[in-house]
Amino acid sequence: MPVPQNTKVSVVGMGSVGTAIAYACLIRGSAGSLALYDLNAGKVRAEVLDLNHGSQFVPHCRITGSDDITVTAGSAVVIVTAGAKQKPGQNRLDLAAANVAMASSLTPRLLEQSPDAVIVFVTNPVDIVTLAATQVAHAAPGKIFGSGTVLDSSRFRYLIAERADLAVGNVHGFIVGEHGDSEISLWSSVSIGGVPADQFRRDGVLVFDEDTRKAISAEVINAAYEIIAGKGATNLAIGLSTARIVEAVLGDQHRVLPVSTVQQGAYEIGGVALSLPTVISAQGAGQVLEVPLSVPELLGLQASASTLCRVQESLGL
Question: Is 138 an annotated catalytic residue?
Fold first, then answer.
């Protein structure tokens, strides 16, 4: 008889982001079972109850939770959101020291419980945290990666679609580099219904001129700051984008997503974790695709890598 596929997903950290990820996975039917882990036993029990009470209205999914890490045992995918959260006015790199220490101590413990799991970090600064986790873990290549700029790229596509007055599914484009202030919008490879951005017109008028492109890129970078200022955290969209990553892994979809991995030479970048279009399958993060870049995009990407390298060095990574 065929061995049943393991579709257990664990979410580590039941703050606003972890809860949103669990909820998104539940309503999308992303996982066969969900295990929630948080040091706050009362909080995790409350979230398990709240999610289970809606089980009539969603695809079947067994939901458990505990303040004991053994609840994550045997997971196919582990999503880590635990750590200090970004405060209004604070950038992601300011969180680095505390969350690097957390990732370094937590990752080996998670792998003890689930040696074959794909571990996805969402904790910020996600690139630095991902690098720290890979340095302490004895895991196969690609088994540990960060959510990277998957959400940033979704923001990018949404803003382009709004200006083009089209459904977002017709827009393709990536944000690459740091998940943060130095990230790069790859305008040279944006496709809008198959039309390059620099040729897209409405009523004969060019829509994406240089000023418009700059404004959209800036809006992507500043989106999180605006949301944090308004409601204290970004959580709903990162919940949905992380559920999409989970589906790519559990479904062995070979989906290209801009996740954060430790680079091995693409665009002459190495030894730093940042986001590039990457094939996601049941094995985790695989081949990195080298999209053709304009000269300013390449220089910007390499500058983004240098920014991250400086932070790594300051933390002794």
Answer: no
